[in-house]
Amino acid sequence: MLRIPCPFCGLRDHAEFDYEGDATVTYPPLDAPEDAWFEAVFLRENPRGRHREYWRHTQGCGAYLIVERDVTTHEIFGAELAHPGMASAMEGAA
């Protein structure tokens, strides 16, 4: 079982979250040529080890997080808010 540290709700079971995708991919603009989208979606590296992923706390506070996880061992190293504005607002509130 994965335990994900939500900045609002604390350490929670992964069943409360939805995986939202790779946080390291930069997608092209919507009006980019089809081959640019094909490359961004299908022709990417799939490295072992630590990886940054988007997760959403759907069964909790609803926050979008960037979770750093080892994709081989599933060890979770931490999580941060994915939205820069929300992350900076939380820092100012602390």
Which helices and strands occur, and which strands form pairs?
Blueprint (H helix, E strand, L loop, with lengths): L2 E4 L3 E4 L4 E5 L11 H9 L7 E7 L7 E7 L5 E6 L2 H10 L1
Task: Describe this protein's structure.
This protein is an alpha+beta fold. It has a single domain (about 15-25, about 35-94), classed as Folate-binding fold (2-Layer Sandwich). It is about 20% helix and about 35% strand. The protein has two helices and six strands; from the N terminus they run βββαβββα. It has helices at about 35-40, 85-94; strands at about 5, 10-15, 20, 50-55, 65-70, 75-80. The strands form two sheets. A four-stranded antiparallel sheet has the order 3-4-5-6. It has a two-stranded antiparallel sheet with strand order 1-2. It starts with a strand and ends with a helix.
Radius of gyration: 15 Å
- Measured between the Cα atoms of the first and last residue, the distance is 30 Å
Tally of strands: 6
CATH domain topology: Folate-binding fold
Q: Unreliable runs, pLDDT <50, ≥5 residues? A: none
Q: What's the average pLDDT?
A: 90
Strand order of the largest sheet: 3-4-5-6
- Largest sheet report: 4 strands, antiparallel
**In percent, how much strand structure appears in the residues?**
35-45%
Quickly count the helices: 2
CATH first level: Alpha Beta
Sum up the overall morphology in one term. Answer: globular
Return the string of H and E elements.
EEEHEEEH
The fourth-level CATH homologous superfamily is: Folate-binding superfamily
* Portion in helices: 10-25%
Which structural class should the secondary elements be placed in? alpha+beta
Query: CATH architecture, please?
Result: 2-Layer Sandwich
Query: Please, how many domains?
Result: 1
